[in-house]
Amino acid sequence: MSSQSLILHAEVFLLLLIAGCHAQLRVDYYRNTCPNVESIVRRAVEMKLQQTPVTAPATLRLIFHDCFVRGCDASVMLASTNHTSEKDNPINLSLAGDGFDTVIKAKAAVDSVPGCQNKVSCADILAMATRDVVALAGGPSYAVELGRLDGRVSTKASVRHHLPHPDFKLEQLNQMFASHGLTLTDLVALSGAHTIGFSHCSQFSKRIYNFKSKKSIDHTLNSAYAEKLQQDCPKNADPRTVVEMDLITPRIFDNQYYKNLQQGKGLLASDQALFTHKRTRDLVNLFASNNTVFETAFVSAMTKLGRIGIKTGNQGEIRRDCSMVN
Ligand code: HEM
Ligand SMILES: *[C@@H]1O[C@H](CO)[C@@H](O)[C@H](O)[C@H]1NC(C)=O
Ligand SMILES: *[C@@H]1O[C@H](CO)[C@@H](O)[C@H](O)[C@H]1NC(C)=O
Ligand SMILES: CC(=O)N[C@H]1CO[C@H](CO)[C@@H](O)[C@@H]1O
User: Fold this and answer.
1) Which residues pair with 146 in a beta bridge?
2) CATH code: domain of residue 143
3) Are residues 151 and 182 in the same domain?
4) From CA 69, how far away is CA 86, in angstroms rounded?
5) Phi, psi at residue 150, to the nearest 5°?
6) What is the tally of structural domains in the chain?
7) Burial class, 196, CB count within 10 angstroms (exposed 0-12 / middle 13-18 / buried 19+)
8) Which of 65, 161, 200, 277 is catalytic?
9) Same domain, 28 and 144
């Protein structure tokens, strides 16, 4: 091969690579098919949020669970009559119903506009709704890339190896995020989502009782905070009991989460691990010290999260009902 044709090949290859990455997604994807989609979704989300404040964390967590399992294709929303879909997995049983409801309501609002009916995917509505709840909770607003199709497959089994556990070590968290092309910075920034919302006691009870199978407390946990958690989550607590993940500003999307970690007040072991480890501690300190830097990193990481496993062409469809394949 001549050197000239080599260069040509390399250029074509590069172009294909760039095009293949996320050329499908565009901020103005619905410009011609449903130009007002953003404001329609926003209005529906505002109404839902007014009725039910827990909509914000519920929606934010839902997109994470969707994108990490089979990509951002709303597969997490598919229901099965025989209880074999993603949301039937025990991890998903704790997903709050209000996240699903937000997307269903926003989808109904979009479909009620004549030209928009069955033009906008459930996966894109979830992405827009997530951006909206974050902004409405006091976080950054950002342009959402659009153009995802909805998947046709959802299995309980696919969840197990794709979602992180709260007792994962930093290395395991990093590995799982890296497998989706997300960096350590993305991991630390996205974990900032835990600045809003709740956790069931079972997700951290090992840290306050029987730590490392002894009758002790996780030593990375602030002791006053550990005592408070023991009060809120007694040993025989109702399994439905929840506590706020950010004890200071639980409903505001801000960088308080990182300030909590600096004080040993991260609720989950996977939260506190970000401060324990030298590799991520600098990032925690940086995000704790400057909310703007956190917001920029969060937006960048959310955009990358939103590109995972995108379906186009005949890999997907625009679902008429978000809980069922067409
Ligand atoms: C880094 C690994 C992560 C682990 C181990 C993890 C684990 C958990 C656990 C155990 C809960 C409590 C669930 C419950 O008991 O109901 C939770 C809640 C939550 N997670 Fe994560 N998560 C991680 C990353 C993320 C990411 C990347 C996001 C979004 C970008 C996210 C958003 C949320 C939200 C908003 C809640 C609160 C849900 C609610 O109040 O309904 N998490 N997470
Ligand atoms: C459950 O139902 C789905 C269709 O909804 C089907 O594809 C799958 O094979 C069924 N699984 C079992 C175990 O019956
Ligand atoms: C926070 O970071 C931004 C962006 O890097 C910078 O412009 C700003 O001055 C910083 N604010 C503080 C208080 O350090
Ligand atoms: C226990 C349970 O079913 N939890 C949630 C699982 O996902 C559905 C989505 O339809 C929610 O409504 C449930 O609250």
Assistant:
1) 26
2) 1.10.520.10
3) no
4) 8
5) -85, 140
6) 2
7) buried
8) 65
9) yes
* Domain span holding position 253: 170-304
Q: Measured from the CB, is residue 166 less than 6 Å from ligand 1?
A: yes
- Looking from the CA of residue 92, the nearest atom of ligand 4 is 6
> In the predicted model, is pLDDT for residue 15 greater than 50?
no
Residue 32 burial (CB count, 10 A): 9
* Residues 159 and 186 placed together within one structural domain of the fold: no
Q: Examine the domain organization and report whether 206 and 84 are in the same domain.
A: no
Q: For residue 76, tell me if it sits in a domain.
A: yes
Nearest protein Cα to ligand 3, atom 10: 290
Residue 14 placed within a domain: no
My answer on whether 146 and 186 are in the same domain is: no
The CATH number for 267's domain is 1.10.420.10
The minimum-distance atom of ligand 4 relative to the CA of 88 is: 6
pLDDT at res. 90: 74
pTM: 0.90
User: Pairing state of beta strands 242-244 and 198-200?
Assistant: antiparallel
Round the average pLDDT of the chain to a whole number and report it. Answer: 91
Residue 39 lies in a domain: yes
Is 138 part of any domain?
Answer: yes
Lowest mean pLDDT among 12-16, 87-91, 140-144, 311-315: 12-16
Percent of the chain whose pLDDT exceeds 90: 80
Which pLDDT score, from 0 to 100, does residue 215 have? 75
Both 147 and 252 in one domain: the answer is no
CB 200 near ligand 1, within 6 Å: yes
Mean pLDDT confidence for 292-314:
97
The answer on 152 and 104 residing in a single domain is yes
**Active site includes 65?**
yes
Instruction: List pLDDT tens digits, range 46-71.
Output: 999 999 999 999 999 999 999 999 99
For the CA of 195, the nearest ligand = 1
Strand partners, 150: 317
